[in-house]
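Researcher: Sequence recovery benchmark, item below. Answer with residues only.
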């Protein structure tokens, strides 16, 4: 016997679909933001507690005191971690804040590049992925 069912409309593969890589990417972006935030908190605490943790750079245009860099990383890490938690809880404010903080993290890591080059490049790449994941998917809530 044949079934009389209406064919379903194909889902578009545009930038605002919640399928495949992008859907899993949003969840993964939230986890990455929490992990990156925690690592930045530790990085900040290390810079505040002991300046000798990082190698001193000679004549660098953006050479702040390492304690100041520690505070920057600590505050940014707290904000990134909280935003990552908000993304995992599917809060709308967290998506927009996540894009802004990931962009800010790219700038901060670029300026911190001479002190920790490997981690800075890795963190910038993670932030690019986070931005992509957050802007390519719709909210996971159902209407």
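Model:
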């Amino acid at each position: 016997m044949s079934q009389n069912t209406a064919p379903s409309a194909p889902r578009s593969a545009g930038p605002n679909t919640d399928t495949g890589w992008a859907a899993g990417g949003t969840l993964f972006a939230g986890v990455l933001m929490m992990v990156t935030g925690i690592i930045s908190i530790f990085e900040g605490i290390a810079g505040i507690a002991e300046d000798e943790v990082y190698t001193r750079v000679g004549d660098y245009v953006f050479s702040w005191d390492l304690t100041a860099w520690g505070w920057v990383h600590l505050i940014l890490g707290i904000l990134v971690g909280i935003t990552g938690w908000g993304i995992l809880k599917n809060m709308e404010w967290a998506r927009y804040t996540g894009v802004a903080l990931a962009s800010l993290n790219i700038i901060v890591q670029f300026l911190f590049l001479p002190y920790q080059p490997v981690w800075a490049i890795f963190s910038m790449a993670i932030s690019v992925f986070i931005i992509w994941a957050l802007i390519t998917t719709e909210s996971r809530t159902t209407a």
